[in-house]
Design brief:
Blueprint (H helix, E strand, L loop, with lengths): L1 H19 L16 H12 L6 H20 L9
Helix pairs in contact: 1-3
Length: 83
């Protein structure tokens, strides 16, 4: 059951990723489906401020965000994550 949850979180993150990639990504160099760099910089600045934590912390936060996206899209109630 736990593996299915991880697959669902990965799928939710994948769907979210394709929502933020510009529709004409294949027309601009480097011809990769990348979100705008200003958007990524803005998200990191609003989430962490000037002092960004380690990438492991950022990835953990990204995974928790994917879990919230998964729950929101499935209509389940959100749960509080405690550290």
């Amino acid at each position: 059951m736990r593996i299915m949850r991880h697959i669902a979180i990965g799928w939710a993150l994948f769907r979210y990723y394709w929502r933020i990639v510009p529709g004409d990504w294949y027309r601009r160099i480097p011809f990769l489906p990348l979100p705008p760099s200003k958007y990524i910089q803005w998200r990191l600045r609003t989430a962490y401020g000037a002092h960004r934590p380690s990438w492991t912390h950022v990835l953990r936060d990204l995974w928790l965000f994917g879990d919230s996206v998964r729950r929101f899209s499935s209509g389940k109630k959100a749960r509080v994550v405690r550290y």
